[in-house]
Amino acid sequence: PRSPSLSVTTLVALLLATAAQAAPEVDGPRRMQRRLLLIDSFSVVFQQYHAIKHPMSTRAGLPTNGLFGYCRLLISALEHIRPTHAACVLEGGGGSVERQKVLPTYKANRAAPEDSLSQQFSHMIPLAEGLGIRSVSKRGYEADDVIATLATLAADTKTFDSITILSSDKDLMQLVSSSARVRVCKPNIKALRDVQAAAFGEAEVMDAFGVRPSQVADYLALVGDSSDNIPGVPSIGPKRAAKLLAEYPTLHDILHAAEHAKPKAFALSESLRAKIVEHRGIALRNMDLVT
Questions:
Q1: DSSP structure string for 121-163
Q2: Which helix (H) or strand (E) holds 288?
Q3: Which end of the chain is more exposed for a tag (fewer CB within 10 A), N or C?
Q4: Residue 29: is it exposed, middle or buried by C-beta count within 10 angstroms (0-12/13-18/19+)?
Q5: CA dihedral in degrees (198, 203, 206, 208; nearest 10)?
Q6: Using an 8 Å Cβ cutoff, are 222 and 247 in contact?
């Protein structure tokens, strides 16, 4: 994810909200655990809207199933994660423009939200504020860019004892770190009830993708991301990408080896080496899109 310019002062300002329902535990007479929760709000609302099939609305006719699910999930997150600081991160508008310059068809597979869903968007911020959580965004950047920036700043400044990201976005798996105590949890009630077991740490990312969190961007550059309409390198699927990254640590290492390896010295096969050389531009373009 791309990083908007946010200072440490801005980080602190963005994370002022502390939910009353999330009163921190005290681990000692003077030591309070500081837990940061970052919520990918539109990811949550979209998921909840489609998960709750039966119609729900106010007396005035405003559809509320997405908002109901959003509220229910936020309350569950506050109860089970118990953050001392939290932020709901929204799309800032115009966030896809720069990536669409790189790939004009970026996210072109996504249909406009249904009217019954879009009517609920304007109520997301006051709903979250009612729970004590501030909503943040930055124009020109996608929500995952802002989440990545906040999480990285928080980890680099060692401001928090743990950082939990609530999202279904695969891109954010590259932020997972045991040393920085960053984890990603899918936004569903079942996962939140046992967040310690359900959240993605380094081992869970390795189990799911076959690569380390630090290699997730390299992995996505090879296989692409259908949810964002990013095509991968031809002939490279998840298993081949994981095998390549087990042999060569980064995408650039793979490309260098493919271009300079002696005959039959490249991992997996000569035909695959030729494919990588031929489609080098796709891999590099994708790397720009997923980071």
A1: HTTHHHHHHHTT-EEE--TTS-HHHHHHHHHHHHHHTT--SEE
A2: helix 280-290
A3: C
A4: exposed
A5: -20
A6: no
Please give the C-alpha separations between residue 204 and each of 10, 100, 188, 226, 269, in angstroms, as whole numbers: 32, 31, 17, 21, 29
Q: What is the pLDDT of residues 174-219, one digit of tens each?
A: 999 998 899 999 888 888 888 888 899 999 999 999 999 999 999 9
Spatial neighbors of 59 by CB under 8 A, at least 6 apart, are none
Strands 85-89 and 134-136, bridge-based pairing: parallel
**To which residue do tokens 């490279």 refer?**
236
Q: Which amino acid is at 267?
A: A
Task: Give residues with Cβ within 8 angstroms of 175, minimum separation 6.
Answer: 148, 151, 152, 165, 182, 184, 213
Beta-sheet pairing, 230-231 with 162-166: unpaired
Locate tokens 């042999």: which residue? 247
From 217, 211, 150, select the one nearest 182 (Cα to Cα).
150
Give this prediction's pTM. Answer: 0.87
- Which two tokens mark 105? 């068809």
- 120-142 residue pLDDT tens: 999 999 999 999 999 999 888 99
Q: CA triplet 139, 141, 146: central angle to 5 degrees?
A: 105
